[in-house]
Amino acid sequence: MIDLEKFISNDIKTQELISSILKHNNENIMMKIKELNNYLFKELCLKEYLDECEPEYCSFRLSNTCPYVVIIKLMYSKYKINLIKETVSN
C-alpha cells in the first residue's frame, strides 16, 4: 500500500491545495476542496477508469484497501478538511 503521509508531503499540488484551503481567506474554499478531492481521487483510486468513487461497487473499499478512502480519513484527522462534506473544521 502507498505511504499516504509521504504522498501528501511530497506532492506539490496536494500541498498547494491544502495550504490554500487552510488559509480560510479564500472565497472559493468549497471549490478548492472539490479540486483537492477530485485530484486525490484521480491520483489514488485503484480503478483508473472511474471519474468518481462508487463505494457500493468497489472491492477495494469493501476490503478496506482503498488508498483514496484512507486519505479522506487522513485529511480530516490531520488537517480537519472534510472532503465528503466539503468543509473545514477548526
List its traits.
two-stranded antiparallel ribbon, 90 residues, mainly alpha, single chain, 5 helices
Kindly summarize this structure in a few lines.
This protein has 90 residues and is mainly α.
Folded structure, characterized:
With 90 residues, this protein is mainly alpha-helical. It has helices at residues 4-10, 12-22, 29-44, 59-62, 67-79; strands at residues 81-82, 87-88. A two-stranded antiparallel sheet has the order 1-2. A hairpin with a 4-residue loop joins strand 1 (81-82) and strand 2. Helix 2 (12-22) packs antiparallel against helix 3 and helix 3 (29-44) runs antiparallel to helix 5 (67-79). The radius of gyration is 13 Å and the shape is globular. The relative contact order is 0.19.
Quote the average pLDDT.
88
Tell me the total number of β-strands: 2
**What is the radius of gyration?**
13 Å
Q: Percent of residues in beta strands? A: under 5%
**Which of globular, elongated, flat, extended, rod-shaped describes the shape?**
globular
Write the layout of secondary structure elements.
Layout: H1 4-10, H2 12-22, H3 29-44, H4 59-62, H5 67-79, E1 81-82, E2 87-88
Antiparallel strand pairs: 1-2
